[in-house]
Amino acid sequence: MPALIILVLMTGVYLVIKGTHGRAGNIGTDAKDLITSLISKAPGSGTVQENLSRKTEPVADTGTPPPSATGSTPTSASEKTRVVATFNALKANGFSDQQAIGILGNLSAESSLNPGAVQAGGNGRGLAQWDVRDRFQTMLQWTRANGFDPNTIEGQVAFLAHEMGTRGLRSGGGGTEADAVKHATTAADAAWKFMFNFERPANSSPENAAKRASIGQGLYNKYIVGGQS
Is this model's pTM higher than 0.70 or not? Predict the structure, then answer.
């Protein structure tokens, strides 16, 4: 009695039939029908050459980072989680409490501290609303090259600190954006220097900077000092 072995693979179904004495056995009608049915239903059914010729098209960056490896999307985090994560990441990158508060207020005004934020009708992306046509792409490349997840607050803040150290002041004076902010001794001064030099919004007035400093101070008082949920 011949032994029938069916191997179902991604490339199709292969049939090996061996007789009791090593000779090829005969395939009955029922077996043929079974094999035909299995081949037609097998994933990726077709010839080996056809399956090998199938190519996966590359996925281009659309401006929205993919969900993180933990399965938690940027918008799923609570406000407290985003505030604490952003503040701690800024501190880890060398900013004082007052400097972190000033930056925190700016980033909250820009993206609500959402690393997946997409500007409505515009090119801004991420925490700092980097332009998707250039700076956002640089952020994606830098974070991946330096072992960060570009979808996280930690990764984007690390890039923000790096970028600030490479860009000159808006006024054209000496030093970098990082130098200017790290010389600030108050949240209001840090908010102004970060907004004017790094963010450069359409409304770069001192009044707007003061508003952003107030936002940062309020978030700090509520979640860092007060520990509210």
Answer: no
Dihedral sign, CA of 46, 48, 50, 52? positive
Contact in structure between 167 and 181 (CB atoms under 8 Å): no
Q: Give strand pairing partners of 3.
A: 18
| Residue 170 belongs to some domain of the structure | yes
> How far apart, in Å, do the first and last CA atoms of the chain sit?
73
For residue 102, give its domain range. Answer: 74-225
Q: One-letter amino acid identity for 204?
A: S
Tell me how far apart the alpha carbons of residues 115 and 180 are, in angstroms, rounded to a whole number.
24
What's the whole-number average pLDDT of the chain? 77
Is 59 within the bounds of a domain? no
Grouping H, G, I as helix, E, B as strand and the rest as coil, residue 136 is helix
